[in-house]
Amino acid sequence: MPKKKITLSSSGIKVNICIECKTVAFDRKKITGLVRRTAGRFGIKKAKINIAVLTDRQIINMNRRFLGRRNTTDVISFDVSDDGGKEKIFDIAVNAQLAKKQAKIRGHSPQAELALYILHGLLHNFGFDDTTSRKAVKMHKTEDEILKKFGFGAVYDTEKR
User: Fold this and answer.
1) Which residues pair with 49 in a beta bridge?
2) pTM given for the model
3) C-beta neighbour count of 132 within 10 angstroms
């Protein structure tokens, strides 16, 4: 399957999207806007954000290779910035096949689920952590707030919990 790479840039935030899996159709401009404006919200002025939309098999291989885990996951993200550099560089890999399955279970669009995965990886790069229930609630609340702002709707709907 041929790779489709889309690069969108404005201001100091450059977003590259490499589509390896076409399971989920999504609005590239909307996703790029979500990424750029979220980066700006957290004080990022210059960045290169690379997003790979992968199959379940590809994300399993990546999870095993980089994290030593043998299972599937929704997103894997890395901050690969130089410590002394002014530009942030983030690599985010998302699982499109899992997004489609989870969207059906959760009752929203696959595009919203994919946007969640991208946002979740991005927030991890900004220092968010979901390893405790308190931290997870804070992260999910932030995700819902941002997703609603960009028209994807709340995925976790933390306000009802």
Assistant:
1) 15, 90
2) 0.91
3) 9
pLDDT tens digit sequence for 24-75: 999 999 999 999 999 999 999 999 999 999 999 999 999 999 999 999 999 9
Burial category of 113 from C-beta neighbours within 10 Å (exposed 0-12, middle 13-18, buried 19 and up): buried
Distance of CA 99 to the CA centre of its chain: 11
| Distance in angstroms (rounded) separating the CA atoms of residues 19 and 4 | 5
Residue in 136, 51, 60 with CA at minimum distance from that of residue 98: 60
- Sorted by where each begins, the domain ranges of the chain are 4-155
Output the CATH code of domain 4-155: 3.40.390.30
Structural tokens at position 152: 């994807």
Tokens of 27: 């609005």
